[in-house]
Design goal:
- The protein has two domains: 2-133; 144-313, 2-Layer Sandwich (Alpha-Beta Plaits), CATH 3.30.70.
- The strands form two sheets. Strands 2-3-1-6-7-8 form a six-stranded mixed beta sheet, sandwiched between helices. Strands 4-5 form a two-stranded antiparallel ribbon.
- The N and C termini lie far apart (170 Å).
- The longest helix has 46 residues, at 88-133.
- The protein is α+β, with helices and mostly antiparallel strands and 328 residues long.
- It has helices at residues 2-29, 37-60, 65-81, 88-133, 144-161, 175-182, 184-201, 225-240, 268-284, 304-327; strands at 165-172, 207-212, 215-221, 244-246, 249-251, 255-261, 290-293, 298-301.
- The site of 3'-deoxy-guanosine-5'-triphosphate has 16 residues, from β1, α6 and α7.
Length: 328
């Protein structure tokens, strides 16, 4: 009977011990309100997913920092709204990391913003330097480099589309003695005004460039020889009729012009050479006149007044003949 009481006491102690261990284990595994294993695993899984998500975010930060900033904010809000429990330490660590990443992100964004602004400023500087490199500072016209590029472009277009193209060289007459008489500042003033005068009588699609000291070139796209001749004479008479006011002086000058139209087998060198030859012919021909090079010869372009007179004569002849016909 004594043996039975001893056995009963041992079994009772073992039972109490079992309950105590169960309670401790249960308390360790399920702190606070009781939670199931699958729920805990899902919770850890979510934290791992957040960590992975953050890793991806950090990796891609350079690609789109702005987007990451908003994503990280969202992740941070989700983490902060998660129920705290035994994993609160892990959650706090992740939240701390998120906060750090957000700070880094903001700094990166600021630096990217600065870099973007600097890049924009630099590209504007490069752009204005490019424009400067192609612009004549005195007149604001395209310079020789810009002219060469435009001529090559137009010749390529002519080859492609077979649309004709003409070129006029314009040179101020006796400009050296003009400078000697009126002074270099007066010469500069006149150069600027000649440039403006040329632009005002040409079409928008034409390009006038200052290619030398007192020498200009005009590219006339889609312009045949007859139209180029008329344009040259319009330019010549406009400049000759202009009075350039400078310090109470009313200055006048004239220009000589060389004209040519593109021909098969032409390139920019041969085209410019012909226009130059026509210009020298105009100088030899007495200045204040235009010459055209037709591929074999240089011929003087008659002034528009004479052309108008010729048209008047033809019209008169025609009128007379019509009257005679009506009488018969
Ligand atoms: P031609 O009728 O044969 O063309 O005679 P020209 O005197 O015009 O030609 P020349 O080549 O002998 O002289 C050109 C002059 O142009 C000399 C130079 O002082 C003047 N010139 C060139 N560039 C400038 C400039 O930027 N400003 C001023 N004021 N004069 C310039
Ligand atoms: Mg000259
Ligand atoms: Mg010259």
């Amino acid at each position: 009977m004594q043996f039975s009481w001893t056995l009963f006491t041992i079994v009772l102690l073992l039972g109490v011990l079992q309950i105590a261990v169960g309670m401790v284990v249960g308390k360790c595994l399920l702190p606070g309100k009781p939670r199931g294993e699958p729920r805990k695993r899902a919770h850890l899984q979510r934290i791992r997913q957040f960590a992975r998500h953050l890793f991806d975010l950090v990796n891609n930060m350079a690609d789109d920092v702005g987007q990451h900033q908003s994503e990280i904010t969202r992740v941070s809000q989700e983490l902060a709204s998660m129920p705290t429990g035994r994993d609160s330490g892990v959650t706090k660590t992740v939240l701390g990391t998120v906060a750090q990443i957000m700070q880094i992100n903001e700094r990166l964004q600021e630096r990217l913003g600065d870099a973007e602004q600097r890049l924009q400023e630099q590209s504007q500087q490069i752009e204005s330097q490019l424009v400067e490199a192609r612009t004549d500072p005195l007149t604001g016209l395209p310079n020789r480099r810009a002219f060469d590029d435009e001529l090559s472009r137009r010749i390529a277009e002519w080859r492609r589309k077979n649309s004709t193209l003409s070129l006029i060289m314009v040179d101020i007459d006796h400009f050296k003695s003009f400078n000697d008489r009126h002074g270099h500042p007066a010469g500069d003033h006149v150069l600027r005004n000649v440039a403006g005068g040329l632009q005002s009588v040409l079409r928008e699609m034409d390009m006038v460039a200052r290619i030398g000291g007192e020498e200009f070139a005009v590219i006339l796209p889609a312009t045949n020889a007859a139209d180029a001749r008329r344009t040259a004479e319009r330019v010549r008479s406009a400049i000759a009729g202009e009075k350039f006011c400078f310090e109470q002086l009313q200055l006048q000058l004239t220009v000589s012009l060389g004209v040519t139209t593109i021909q098969p087998d032409d390139d920019s060198v041969s085209l410019v050479k012909r226009a130059d030859e026509a210009l020298y012919a105009a100088k030899r021909g007495g200045r204040n006149c235009s010459f055209i090079h037709d591929g074999s010869d240089c011929r003087r372009i008659e002034s528009s007044k004479r052309s108008e007179a010729e048209i008047d004569t033809v019209c008169d002849d025609l009128r007379r003949k019509l009257t005679e016909l009506a009488r018969d």
